[in-house]
Amino acid sequence: MPADTNANGDIFGGWLLSQMDLGGGVFASKVAKSRTVTVAIEAMNFRKAVYVGDLVSVHANLVRVGRTSITVHLEAWVLRRREQQSILVTDGNFTYVSIDDQGRPQPIQRDGATIST
């Protein structure tokens, strides 16, 4: 939306980062089967601009499950108006920590299922 633009009229990178973090947080919570919080964002690559009117999709891939943390590779893709092919615009690794009801880190329950990466 126009309210999410920077001084150049492109979508503000912070808005896109927050959308990626929301999607990654949902993914991490489903893997951990608990509440998770973001503790690190690394290797962010802003490859292309996002424009007003672009349809943004965020895709998550599991990188690593530790004792209390989950690392997720997130990609943001856009479908531009009048185009048929999606374009990778941003990607990076986000790390989330599983927390208990008091907000303290807790071990991730594995319930015997193998998590593939």
Return residue spans where pLDDT drops below 50 for at least 5 consecutive residues.
none
Give me the Rg, rounded.
Answer: 16 Å
Class inferred from helices and paired strands: alpha+beta
Overall number of strands: 4
Strand order of the largest sheet: 1-4-3-2
Oligomer: single chain
Q: Report mean pLDDT, rounded to a whole number.
A: 92
- Tally of DSSP helical segments: 1
What would you call the shape? elongated
Strand content: 35-45%
The H/E string reads HEEEE
**Helical residues, percent:** 10-25%
Largest sheet: 4 strands, antiparallel
Separation of termini?
Answer: 34 Å
Characterization of the model:
- It is elongated and about 45 Å long.
- β3 (69-79) and β4 (87-99) form a beta hairpin.
- By secondary structure, it is of the alpha+beta class.
- The mean pLDDT is 92.
- The chain contains one helix and four strands; from the N terminus they run αββββ.
Quick overview:
It is built from 1 helix and 4 strands; from the N terminus they run αββββ.
